[in-house]
Amino acid sequence: MEEFTDRMYSCAIHYDSSILNLPEKFPFEIVVPMSDTLKATYEEVKKGILSELPGEDFSNPKFKFSFLGKLSKLRQVTAGFLILPNGRIQYIDETPKLDYLEDYVDLLLDRGEAIVIWTIFKESMALIKKRLSKKGVGIITLSGDDKPAQREDKILQYQNDNTYQICIGQEQAGGIGTNLFKTTAMGQRQHTIFFENLVTPEAKTQAEKRTLRIGQTIDCQFTDIFVENSLDEWVLDCVKSGTNLIELLTKRGINRI
Question: Residues 6 or more apart from 91 whose CB is under 8 A from it?
């Protein structure tokens, strides 16, 4: 763990935001190996998705939308669950991505630092909250189900009450137009963890700006956690390069996801 800490704080690339009078930005990545057990589940779900496809007609917008929706099942698998056709949730026994997240959060909590965790799925939020609720710190959640007044109350609670050390939010719901830095800074850095990413770099930039903004008094670290050789990694490649996921699928081949 000590070696992990040293690598995180000394090797992360940083960007100078002094021109905007902002704190510095430190990106970091945690690569989660795909275990044999998880790979078997992932491949089974992938096989089912590909068997339903009539062909690679990416020129058809309806087909593209349908295909991207089906692909989301692979991201569910790496997160630790699967939404079945009847709407029920099937939980996956082996959850290395969630395990790595918990270990990382333990490290940051020990350092007394505040954390924002972004997800895409509400089910991911629930799994993360359940896992982290044992840590003895306050947690707030931001989802699309929150009413505006409720959402504002939660944000102010996170900002102003340092017993609330963790915020878990759906990027679609809380990643735009909110201030999520602490009024009174905690520790060395403010942390933002992307457990899941939206597919566009613009969405990620907006989510980062929830903590990296005027008024923030400490440096900000942004961590991507993803399962190696999975759709997680493909989506992150799209975010980094600005490439459309369909373009990437066409270039690399669907069977390689």
Answer: 80, 81, 127
